[in-house]
Design brief:
Length: 274
């Protein structure tokens, strides 16, 4: 009989040894044993190091909390966790086969993005959809953050950055062309990666981490949830990405900043209101 841990979404367990429970493995490598996270395979107990090497050909540090943040955020964007609903910490811990400690840490991280809220003595809840004025404030904050970061990091643009953006946008183009309705999680993650590259031009790890915690790219779509992909206009967003990439190729700072500003403002509350 398979254990509860082996049935959870997105986390691939391998039976551990010496009562340590499970080694959780992703495509990027080993990231935890039970509820304990390890930054590298060298930190793993000797009793499981041999198993670790057999399990993953490529071992890279992956935080268990980071994985939970992504999983919970995706559930919110997909509508699996509805606006205003209570978030059961134990339920999530059981679903992913982890302790409640990393789940609490993940939810605390999500507070910064306002995807969730917390009430004293009641726990965590999915944030309600914002008012029109609140959404306008969010768009303004995102535009200010990203355009400032890109302006500061523009001189650091490399061909590698451009190729990475082209690859991400090509994946988004394929999604836009399918016309599928259930694409918001996949699209949101790719879009977030695209904008993370732009912010990463600063070569400032603190700013990049802050942007990731705020989850502006994902949050924009989460705030506009319950609308159709046609209303959001995925093809338009892809075209705007193309314009930004072209501006980077010719090293036109002013054009890139103007395109980025228009792009962020494209998904407004007026556009996506039912």
């Amino acid at each position: 009989m398979r254990s509860r841990a082996s049935r959870r979404k997105g986390f691939d367990p391998v039976q551990g040894v010496d009562g340590l429970g499970y080694i959780f493995v992703s495509q990027t490598g080993i990231y935890a044993i039970g509820s304990l996270s390890y930054g590298s395979p060298k930190e793993l107990p000797k009793s499981v190091s041999a198993l670790a090497k057999k399990t993953a050909k490529q071992l890279e540090p992956v935080s268990l909390v980071d994985r939970l943040v992504s999983a919970i955020r995706d559930s919110i964007i997909a509508g699996e966790l509805e606006s205003g609903s209570h978030i059961g910490i134990k339920k999530i811990a059981d679903e992913y086969g982890v302790s409640m400690i990393p789940v609490r840490e993940a939810l605390a991280r999500l507070l910064a993005s306002r995807l969730v809220r917390v009430e004293a003595n009641r726990g965590y809840f999915v944030a309600s959809k914002p008012s029109q004025s609140e959404f306008a404030e969010f768009v303004e904050a995102r535009e200010l953050f990203e355009t400032t970061a890109v302006a500061r990091g523009f001189d650091n643009v490399t061909d590698t950055d451009i190729r990475q953006l082209e690859k991400l946008n090509q994946s988004m183009r394929k999604i836009a062309e399918t016309g599928r309705k259930d694409v918001m999680v996949e699209w949101g993650n790719l879009n977030s990666d695209f904008h993370q590259v732009l912010v990463g031009l600063t070569r400032n790890s603190y700013l990049s981490s802050l942007y990731a915690d705020l989850a502006f790219g994902n949050m924009h779509f989460q705030l506009a949830r319950d609308v159709t992909t046609e209303a959001i206009g995925l093809r338009t967003l892809v075209s705007q990405h193309d314009e930004m990439i072209e501006a980077m190729k010719v090293r036109d700072r002013a054009r890139l900043l103007a395109c980025l500003s228009d792009h962020i403002k494209n998904l407004t509350r007026d556009t996506v209101s039912p």
